[in-house]
Design goal:
The protein has about 425 residues and is of the alpha+beta class. The chain contains 18 helices and 14 strands.
């Protein structure tokens, strides 16, 4: 079968590249249709290179397993327009990447660069941070209690707690955290009119999908971390910034591009996705008092709440992969250099894997969600993220007598990374 035999209907193809459809939840209707009718089809959208779309859990898992056959770095790992791709290649000497993070790397570089910080994010190291994180969580709950029974949970709690944790580990001073939060929102929310930069002359801000990443945001991030890096080379400390600043691969210091990319992915992805899952959990609990009652009656369910909120929200909605050779996959003929979208949020609602996937169940078992990816690119910070969430809920759930929505929640408009951006709640804390 050829790609032409498996073209996705235009309405559904367009949804996959439309940020507002991710914010409204319309994309879930497209995912459901695709899983049932064309689980591995081709999307053809004006101004974007055609791409295969993997929507079933099993196919996403299989592609993620085969890192030699499906590369992350040969083309953009996020959906991008032809115009954007051309501009980036012109700027970056032929490379399709503005940054060179672990996300844009394949073997042999990927395992070498991953090893630089992997020890920091392993459970045995994180155990030493648990008490410090618990103090941060306790302070966050106390601040929430002081808000008088009503707040925007995303903007007053969920955004700031994981931000403070990762900046503490990274070595960014607390007074710079608002700047880091703003830059992160501008990076991941470039297509959102409330979160992205509004300057008309932003050099790489285009009209569709997640491809409007703003180069000015990357410059601002890099300028900040370049200064921090120079300071950590002069005066090393016991933080992650010191590790990155003094990293060596194959006997040579890593390049400025790779160092800045490392800082940016830790500083941005290190809290944004966790904030989204925390916000998603509170949103779900505000609409489902019975689930909150289960947690209050049995706090041992809190790890289940963490995994279910990650599945439910799936902050990283999509990543792209590139076929390295002609191959057959899912009964389709793929050609070398074919582009593939992995729809994690669809895999996490796959009826073949999850019973009643549209239900939010804090006691869901098993919960084989794909939100952290799989294979070589399994999220480096997954243990930290789950520990942060567990500790916050351990501090909050015993005190949270009730919660309900106090207005209309809103999701961010983005194809790549999205989550709750506004969550007005009314609550009673003990």
């Amino acid at each position: 079968m050829t790609a032409a035999d498996h073209r996705i209907p235009q309405e559904h193809a367009d949804t996959l590249a439309t940020p507002t459809d991710y914010a409204s939840g319309k994309v879930y209707e497209t995912y459901r249709w695709l899983r049932n009718n064309e689980p591995f089809g081709v999307a053809k959208i004006e101004g974007i290179d055609p791409f295969w779309v993997a929507t079933r859990h099993a196919d996403i898992l299989e592609i993620s397993r085969q890192n030699d056959l499906f590369h992350s770095g040969d083309r953009s790992p996020t959906l991008t327009t032809q115009v954007m791709d051309k501009k980036v290649r012109e700027m970056m000497g032929g490379s399709p990447h503005l940054l060179r993070t672990l996300v844009q790397m394949d073997a042999p570089d990927h395992p070498k660069y991953r090893a630089l910080t992997q020890g920091w994010f392993m459970p045995q190291n994180l155990r030493g941070l648990e008490e410090r994180i618990r103090r941060i969580a306790r302070a966050a709950v106390d601040r929430m209690a002081a808000l008088g029974g009503e707040c925007d949970f995303v903007n007053e709690v969920a955004l700031h707690y994981p931000l403070h944790v990762i900046m503490t580990i990274l070595g960014v001073p607390e007074e710079d955290e608002p700047r880091m939060l703003k830059l992160t929102q501008e990076l991941f929310g470039a297509s959102d009119p409330e979160l992205g930069r509004q300057a008309d002359d932003a050099p790489l801000k285009l009209g569709r999908g997640e491809q409007e990443m703003d180069f000015g945001v990357i410059v601002d991030f890099s300028n900040y971390f370049r200064a921090l890096s120079e300071e950590r080379r002069r005066n090393p400390t016991d933080d992650l910034a010191t590790v990155i600043a003094n990293s060596v691969v194959d006997g040579q210091p890593i390049s400025d591009l790779e160092a800045m990319s490392y800082y940016i992915i830790v500083a941005a992805a290190g809290h944004d996705t966790t904030s989204s899952s925390v916000g998603g959990a509170m949103w779900a609990l505000a609409e489902r008092p019975k689930e909150l009652a289960k947690l209050r009656a049995d706090p041992s369910l809190i790890p289940g709440l963490v995994d279910e909120s990650i599945r439910w929200t799936t902050p990283v909605k999509t990543f792209m992969r590139t076929a390295t050779a002609d191959t057959e996959f899912a009964g389709r003929q793929l050609r070398k250099n074919d582009w593939i979208m992995l729809c994690y949020a669809s895999g996490n609602r796959d009826e073949a894997v999850f019973e009643a996937p549209e239900d939010f169940r804090v006691d869901r078992k098993p919960n084989k969600h794909l939100a952290f990816g799989y294979g070589a690119h399994l999220c480096l910070g997954q243990h930290l993220a789950k520990m942060e969430m567990r500790i916050l809920w351990e501090e909050l759930i015993p005190r949270l007598k009730s919660v309900e929505l106090a207005g209309e929640p809103k999701m961010s408009e983005a194809v790549f990374v999205n989550g709750p951006k506004r969550l007005p709640i009314r609550f009673t804390l003990a």
